[in-house]
Amino acid sequence: MSELPPLAQQALDAFARLPGWEQRARLLLQWAERLEPLDAAERSEANRVHGCESLVWLVAERRDQALHFRAASDARLLRGLLALLLARIEGLDGAGLAALDLADWFAQLGLQRQLSPSRSNGLNAVLERMRELAATR
Amino acid sequence: MPGLSIHARQTFRGTAAMPLNSPWRADFPGILALQAEGQTYLDNAATAQKPEPVLAALDAYYRNGTANVHRAQHLPGDRATRAFEATRLKVTQWLNAASPAEIVFTRGATEAFNLLAYGLEHLFQPGDEIVVSALEHHANLLPWQQLAHRRGLNLVVLPLDAQGDIDLAAAATLIGARTRLLAVSQLSNVLGRWQPLPELLALARARGALSVVDGAQGAVHGRHDLHALGCDFYAFSSHKLYGPEGVGVLYGRSDALARLRHWQFGGEMVRHAEFQDAEFHPAPMGLEAGTPPIAGVIGLGAALDYLDGLDETAVAAHEAALHAELLAGLAARDGVRLLGAPRIALACFAVDGVHNADLAHLLGEQGIAVRVGSHCAMPLYERLGLAGAVRVSLALYNDGEDLRRFFAALDAALELLR
């Protein structure tokens, strides 16, 4: 696997040494604030990712050839998880997205429970949507 | 909706704190194992842990040699059939049905409602009405909704009052001349209130409509005399009643059962088969196609035996005390809003300014097993204007310590989130 993007490495350094759920939650809430905002028009039905209990929107755009994603949610901790997902996939092309092991990434962060099959927060649905968008744009 | 509200309650404050112990907790290896793992299980409306006698019955059935029921002349087949049919007799007595022929085993309560919606389909004409209530679980809503689509029927939805009960005044006008069937829940899995069944069933009877009662939650919190209740059909699932999953019970009064057409075809339900035609058994056998969940049915029998051996009054008193403590704890916290006014078994709540998903995340992190979401009642939540809620649901093995851990986790989560 190639090197992690700088922001992802930063996340790994920060999360991997946290001793408990409370510290992880506090840091997730901080990461939630890092998401680039989506405006009201971008929070549209067309940009909604279904398969999440909470509302999640995902927008993709080309910036200098590379695909750039932005995401938003009405749930705060999920915003933190989305920020960690976006940090990990920054700069990846379609093939890189297809190969990404999301469970492994969150396991490295100590957040593996957030990816279990019974979770309905929809991170897997977000990654699926990213793969679709990468294939079509 | 007009009526049903979400409101903060101010009552129950200052309840004296007595340790609430469950004398039955030690009978449930599952709850003890979860506790040892640091998990506090308060999602009992979804499914319940099993008492030791149920585990023993499942183990013994397989360990002593399994066989299929109803067909074989050999000893193992005879033994399996006797044990299987013994459960039918226990269910008959449990519900005070007239005879074991009124008890049909299905693969769950959901399958029981689907069986009814297909088996009764031939009785409906376009324009006929099916009446349900606004609090129905998807299992007792979607089979009727889809039947209405298939046959061009109108689905009428009874509104709720502010407490969370089906509005009887509205029901008296909505259950009308075109009503052919009334399908209502006995105890809501969201609002935790006994519904006014005697009044509703009388309204249906007066119109000559069939009645279906969803007892999935109700069956767990009290024994019900179906002869006295007087409904045509009643369904519940084993797994919520401390038995194995994969088994549902459909009670049908004999004259009502006789109106059902066969709906699934295969082994066991057929009396005589030719290539071009066949004759089928009447209910209950005729409605039990294929190999049934034999071990599960035997396990349900063990669960009923276990429950039969408990002091019913003591169980009810314990559950009521737990529920009061749950309500008191919720009422004592700022910004916590109860859905309706739950009376038994569970409470659903939302917290002002806090997303349910965030609460769910942090309760889960702290080993609190509660349900967050729309609890298979999406239309109800839509009417409440809520995306979902947190549901704490109780069983007879829960104790005051479970609630103490839940509230400590809730406080820690809210401290982080606000």
From TrEMBL, chain A:
This is Cysteine desulfuration protein SufE. It comes from the Bacteria. Belongs to the SufE family. Gene3D superfamilies: 3.90.1010.10. Residues 13-132 form the Fe-S metabolism associated domain. Pfam families: SufE (PF02657).
UniProtKB/TrEMBL annotation, chain B:
Its EC number is 2.8.1.7. Keywords: Pyridoxal phosphate, Transferase. Pfam families: Aminotran_5. InterPro entries: Aminotrans_V_dom, Aminotrans_V_PyrdxlP_BS, Cys_dSase_SufS, PyrdxlP-dep_Trfase, PyrdxlP-dep_Trfase_major, PyrdxlP-dep_Trfase_small. Residues 40-406 form the Aminotransferase class V domain. It catalyses: (sulfur carrier)-H + L-cysteine = (sulfur carrier)-SH + L-alanine. GO terms for biological process: cysteine metabolic process. SUPFAM superfamilies: PLP-dependent transferases (SSF53383). The keyword Isomerase does not apply. GO terms for molecular function: cysteine desulfurase activity; pyridoxal phosphate binding. It is an enzyme of class 2 (transferase). Its cofactor is pyridoxal 5'-phosphate. The keyword Transferase applies. Belongs to the class-V pyridoxal-phosphate-dependent aminotransferase family. Csd subfamily. This is cysteine desulfurase. It comes from Pseudomonas kuykendallii.
